[in-house]
Request: fold
Amino acid sequence: MPRPDRYSGFGLIELMVTITLLSILMALAVPSMGAWIRNNKIRTVADSLQNGLRQAQTEALRRSRQVVFSLTNSTAPQTSLTATDDGRNWSINVVKLLTDDNNGVFVASGVLGAVGSDVQITGPAAVCFNSMGRLVANSNTQVSGSTSCDAASIPPTYNITLPGADRPLRVLVALGGQVRICDPNRSLSSGQPDGCP
Reply:
């Protein structure tokens, strides 16, 4: 029986070259993957904030009552709500009528902080929608912990950023009630519909 002159398989040099090439590719991919993850966190928080604002507007239309959307750090806003400018959660409450004995009725709440840890949100603590779904100023919302929707914050702008991310986002609410996400690094135009005005 003849002996083979050469064995098939990988040699040590071929294995070392393969591992080196994979290491180089991984070193190039890891930084861009980290930026992608940070940008994705910003997008997730912006989507959650936009959905909360739209739900508040829809509740105002559905109930034909004024509704207040509040940012809060409270994890149980249905029992203890304190509105804050940089809250990690949001809450929707119906504004109390003058003839009503109860405080504002709690409608819904949502989470911002858990979906994007370390994401920074700047904007007004409260936004009020009238019964037609449009923005309105209200100096006394009759909602415990959310005292006013300031006229100076109309129309409201929420800036969403994260250190190390290269794509901050902004959530805008127009006077007529339109809620949209835009990119503050771009100018709104027909070629860039995702830009901010």
About this structure: The chain has a mean pLDDT of 85. Helices lie at 12-63. The beta strands are 67-72, 89-94, 105-111, 120-122, 126-129, 135-136, 157-161, 169-173, 179-187, 195-196.
